[in-house]
Design brief:
By secondary structure, this protein is mainly beta. The protein contains one helix and eight strands, in the order H-E-E-E-E-E-E-E-E. The protein folds into two domains: 50 residues; 80 residues, Beta Barrel (OB fold (Dihydrolipoamide Acetyltransferase, E2P)). Bound molecules: zinc ion (ZN).
Length: 131
Amino acid sequence: MEKPSAGLWRKIKSRYNLVGSTCSKCGSNYFPPRIVCRKCGRESKMEDRKFNGNGEVVSFTTIRVPPDTFKDEAPYIVGVVRLEEGPMVEGHIIENSRPIDIGTKVRTTFRKMYVDGEEGLIYYHYKFEPV
Ligand SMILES: [Zn+2]
């Protein structure tokens, strides 16, 4: 069996905890995490940063014809959320009793994303929920 790479573990960590990175030189925040700051280049000093998961909807759309992985969930909403700390994050938006629109405040929640048919592995991922 192949050992998961450090890169994969890093991805899993950021998926489950909404951990991105912050540049301690200029304060820019990134999600997914970056190794080099876009503004500071080789001068950048990157550190892990856990985001609080609160943000607002910047854009959204309803997916009616999904990829196979999500065929049981359609129709569903995906959108771009601007986190309070700045980064723009794409993700599913869960429909609850509150309306979804541009500017709707959302929080992050961790939900089952899909089940891998052959191995029965269940994948979890962040989703957004109106508050
Ligand atoms: Zn920077």
